């Protein structure tokens, strides 16, 4: 049994401009010790889906359908008290921006200690000692002294480590990290990924939400690609990067700069993400897809099996509705990605 099972998750935002289907039929699983990367453009639904798993959506967002099971337990049916036990306890969350996630008027030690008290039976000096130990575990030097300092006294990378320490307070089985490396320089990014790598080695499952494909390629075992609230591709990390099956994924990969790249300009995906209060009929990517046919404007493609049973893509090329399959030649060493129909 998978540690986390998400099936047909449907999240909508009720706004004055209309109902926005931010997440539409999302399904995936995550095993113990596995590292899943969730990628896509801004507005794809990556963060919203992660928040929905923990029931952290604010109004006007609502979960309107689907199931979320953690270790066999339905989280969408759980009581608020039970959710508080699981959230921050068995499931830790590392939020994107430490400047807003950390309270500026409390010391770092107080904030980590609060998380320890909330999710363990420790209190007083025992909770403080545990907080210092957690700060040490995530690589903060001189943790005893640093625990007495305030968030503004920490660099961005160190503040992000504090968030990881707080997420580990309840000794979780799953860590959800939402864009944890955003705004950090490459050296600090590498250090943070090394930390997550060490934690995952202890059988901790990690769901990494990111727009940085390089980070996902380095860290993750499997990748889920989202576009306009839906999954468009799901595969093992090597299969996805070396043999993408969806035009959107191939477009994302072609836009990544690489060492030795001699192109004058990086590739781009034409057009913009559709308005999810009035998405286009059929495939949501067809307005930007260079291979779209008339049927793509009428049928919403399922997440279909490709030539590899573990590699799935939401494209009608794999359901027999188009003239052959799509194949992409992805040159990781710097040449442009090329797509063709076969």
Automatic annotation (TrEMBL):
Keyword Cell membrane in the entry? The reply is: yes
Listed name of the protein? ABC transporter ATP-binding protein
Q: Give the signal peptide as a residue range, or say none if absent.
A: none
Q: Which SMART domains match?
A: AAA
The record's subcellular locations are: Cell membrane
Q: Which residues form the ABC transporter domain?
A: 6-253
The cellular component terms of Gene Ontology attached to this UniProt record, alphabetical and capped at eight, are: plasma membrane
Under Pfam families, the record lists: ABC_tran, oligo_HPY
Q: Which Gene3D superfamilies match?
A: P-loop containing nucleotide triphosphate hydrolases
Q: What is the superkingdom listed in this entry's lineage?
A: Archaea
Enumerate the GO terms in the molecular function aspect. Answer: ATP binding
Record flagged with keyword Membrane: yes
Q: How does it sit in the membrane?
A: Peripheral membrane protein
Q: Which UniProt keywords apply?
A: ATP-binding, Cell membrane, Membrane, Nucleotide-binding, Transport
């Amino acid at each position: 049994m998978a540690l986390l099972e998400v099936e047909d998750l449907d999240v909508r935002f009720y706004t004055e401009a209309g109902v926005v289907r931010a997440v539409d039929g999302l399904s995936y699983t995550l095993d113990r010790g596995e590292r899943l990367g969730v990628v896509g453009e801004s507005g794809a639904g990556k963060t919203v889906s992660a928040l929905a798993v923990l029931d952290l959506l604010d109004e006007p967002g609502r979960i309107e359908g689907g199931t979320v099971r953690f270790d066999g337990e339905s989280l969408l049916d759980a009581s608020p008290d039970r959710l508080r036990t699981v959230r921050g306890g068995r499931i830790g969350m590392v939020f994107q921006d430490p400047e807003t996630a950390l309270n500026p008027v409390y010391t770092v030690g107080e904030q980590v200690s609060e998380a320890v008290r909330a999710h363990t039976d420790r209190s007083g000096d025992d909770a403080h000692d545990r907080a210092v130990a957690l700060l040490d575990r995530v690589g903060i030097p001189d943790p005893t002294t640093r625990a007495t300092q305030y968030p503004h006294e920490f660099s961005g990378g160190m503040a992000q480590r504090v968030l990881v320490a707080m997420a580990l307070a309840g000794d979780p089985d799953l860590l959800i990290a939402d864009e944890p490396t955003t705004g950090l320089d490459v050296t600090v990014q590498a250090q943070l990924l090394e930390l997550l790598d060490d934690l995952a080695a202890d059988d901790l499952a990690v769901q990494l939400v990111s727009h940085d494909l390089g980070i996902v390629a380095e860290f993750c075992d499997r990748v889920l690609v989202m576009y306009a609230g839906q999954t468009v591709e799901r595969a093992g990390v090597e299969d996805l990067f070396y043999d993408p099956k969806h035009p959107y994924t191939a477009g994302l990969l072609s836009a990544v700069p690489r060492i030795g790249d001699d192109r004058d300009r990086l590739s781009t995906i034409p057009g913009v993400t559709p308005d999810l209060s009035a998405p286009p009929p059929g495939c949501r990517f067809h307005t930007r897809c260079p291979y779209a046919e008339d049927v793509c404007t009428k049928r919403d493609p399922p997440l279909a099996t490709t030539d590899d049973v573990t590699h799935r893509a939401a494209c009608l090329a794999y359901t027999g509705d188009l003239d052959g399959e799509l194949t992409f030649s992805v040159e990781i060493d710097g040449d442009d990605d090329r797509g063709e129909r076969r």
